[in-house]
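Fold these two proteins, one after the other.
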Amino acid sequence: GMLGLITQSGGAKGLASWVSVDATSRRRAQLTTWFLGLLVFFDDYANSLLVGSSMRPVTDRLRISREKLAFLVDATAAPVASQAVISSWIGVEVGYIADHFTHLGIERDSYLTFIETIPFRFYPILMLLFVAWVGLRGRDFGPMLRAERRASSEGLVSRPGAQLNSDIHEDAVSEDVDGRPMNAIGPVVMLVLVAAVGIYVDGRSKALAAGLEPTLRTIVGEASSSAAILWATGAGCLVALALSVWTGALSFSKSVEAWVGGMKSMLYAVLILVLAWALGGVCRDLDTAAFLIGALGDWLAPAWIPASVFVMAALVSFATGTSWGTMAILFPLVVPLAHQIAPGQEVILFGTVSSILAGSVWGDHCSPISDTTVLSSMATSCDHMDHVRTQLPYALMVGGVSLLCAELPVAAGWYGPWAGLLIGAAVMMGAFELLSRPVPR
C-alpha cells in the first residue's frame, strides 16, 4: 500500500527524474541506471517499472539499445530487493527462516540470521558489481554486443521487426502527475527509522527482562523483527498518505484508492505463495525431508550442500518463474537436510539458506516467464525474447563464477564469504575483459 501511494503521488517519478539529470553520456547513463536501481531498493516491481520508464528516453537519445537497458533494469531489481534490510521481500524471507528454525528447534533470531547470511548471497552481490563494471567499461560480448553495436552505429535502439512490449507504467502513473521526490523519501525514511527504533526498544526490554546484557547483538536477537516491520510499514503508510494529500498530488479518496491499488498488485504473488506453501506443507507432512536425508546423507558431503541447493533453486525458479514460490518449495526440504547432515556448522547452514535465496534470484532473473523479467521488458519497451537472449549469457557467467569461486570453496572452508566475494569479483571481471569487445561510440 505504501508503494502504491509513493508511485501514484509522483514520489518515485520525482526520485527517478532527480537522479537521471546527469546522464549525459553512454557511460553516465548506464551507471545512473545502476545507481537508480540501487536507490529504489524497497521493491523489485517498483524498481523495474520506475527505473525502466524513467531512463528509457535518456538511453534512446544516447543510442543505448533497449536490450541493454532492460538488462540494467532487470539485474538491479530482484538482486537489490532480495538483500535490502527493508523491502517487500524481507517479510517473506525472514518468515521462512523463522518458520523452519522453529520447526527444527534452532534457537536463532530470524532477522539477525537474515543479516548474517547477506555476505553469502554471492550471485546477487556479484551481479550488482557486474552491472556497474559493464557500464563503466563500455564493453559487451555475445548477443548484447551485437545489439549495442547496432544501436550505436545505426541508431536502431531495437532490432528491426522486434515486437516491443507495451509500457504499463503509463497506465500506472498519469503523465500530468508532477515528480515529487519527498513523497518517496519521507515514507522510506520513516519506515527505516521506526523499524530501527522498534527493534531497539522491543529487543532492549526483552533482554533486560531476561537478565541479559543489552548489547546491540543481544537487542537485535531478542527483538520481534516482524512486529517492528509491521509498525514501520504502518508509519510509512501514514506519512505517504499525509504527504500525498498535503502536497496536493492526490485527494484523500484518491490516496486511499492508490493504497488499495498497491495491495492489489500483490494478489498474484500471494496466490503463488499460497500454492507453494501448500506444496511445502504436503512435503512436510509426508516427511520428504527425512527421505532426502536418508537417501543423500551417506554420500553427500556437507561442503556440497550449498552449491547443490543453489543449482536446484536456480532450476526450479527458472522453470516456475517465481523466486518466492521456489523459496516456499525448497525451505522445508533443504534446511532440515543441512541441519541434519552438518549439525552446528553455521557456514553450511548460512550457505544453504543463502543458496536458496540466491538461486531463486538467478532463476527469476533469467526465466522468460518471470514477473520481473516481463516487467523489465515492458517498462523499457523491449522485445521480451530479445531481452532474455541478451541477458542470459551474462547471468550464466556470473552464476558460474559465484558457484565455482564462492559457493563451493566457502562451504569447503578454504576461505570466508568476504574472500569469496573478492575472488569471485576478480575472476568475473577478468573473464568479462577476455570475452568482451568495445562498443563503438
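Now the second one:
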Amino acid sequence: LSSFFDEFESVPPTVLKEIYKSFVDDRAMLEMLVEEKPAVVSFHFGAPPAQWIEELKSAGIYTMGCATTLSEARQLEQAGAQAIVAQGYEAGGHRGVFDDGFGKDQQMGLFALLRIIVAAVDLPVIAAGGIMEGAGINAAMMLGASACQLGTAFILCPESCATPAHREALKGPKAHQTRVTSYLSGRPARGIPNRLYLESGADRVPLPAEYPLAYDAAKALHGAASAKGCHDFAAQWAGQGAPLARELPAQRLVQVLVEEMQAASRFSHS
C-alpha cells in the first residue's frame, strides 16, 4: 500500500494492530453482557464456547449465530445457539464464514442456503442477504424463514451512521456494482468498490494480512486520504440489493415494509 500512502504524503504503519478483539478471547465482554442483559446477542465469524452461550441464555438473553453453510449452522446448533441467521452471498458487509482461509467461502445464494438449512436444522432460521422490500421478506418466509434480517435497506435512514460519501455512493450508479473483497479488512466483505478492491487489478498483488490486521492498515490509509479530502478508500458496505435502498426515517421504512408485505400477500392470494 506504500504507493497509496505516498499519494497523500503519508507513510504506511510499521506495525499492524489487532484493532478488534474477538469475543471468544474476551471474558470481560461476556460478563458485561450477562450483567447488562440485552434482549439478543448475535455472533458472527463463528461461535464462542457452548458454556459461554449457556451463560448468556441463563441470563435471559436470546442467542443467534450467522451461518453461510449447513455445516456452520449445525456447529451453531450444537453450541447451543437458539436461532440461525442464514447469510446469503448477496449480503452486504462481512461474510460470516467460520474459516477465513482464502477460497473456502462456498458463496451460496440466500434462497438455496435457506432451504438447505431449514430442511436440516431444528431451529428458527433468519434470512439475510439482498432483502430490501416487503415482497422479498414474504418470499423468504415462504421458503421457511422465521424472520428476515435487513441491513443495507436502512443505510439511507437519517438514523444510520453512514457518512455523506457513503450515502451519495448508495444513491448513484455505484450501488449497482457491489463486490466482495478481502483487501479492506482481511476477511471477505461486500461493499461498493473503491481503489482498495484489488482482486481485479491487472498486476499481481499480495494477499492481505489476516483480519483485523489488514483493517488497521486500510483505516490508516483512509485516514490519510480523507485528511486530503479523498474518500476513495472508505469501507462502504452494501448488499446486492443496494439500488433499492430508500431514504426514509427508520420508523417509516418499517411501516412501508409491512405495508408491502401485506400488499404482496394479497396479490399472491388473488
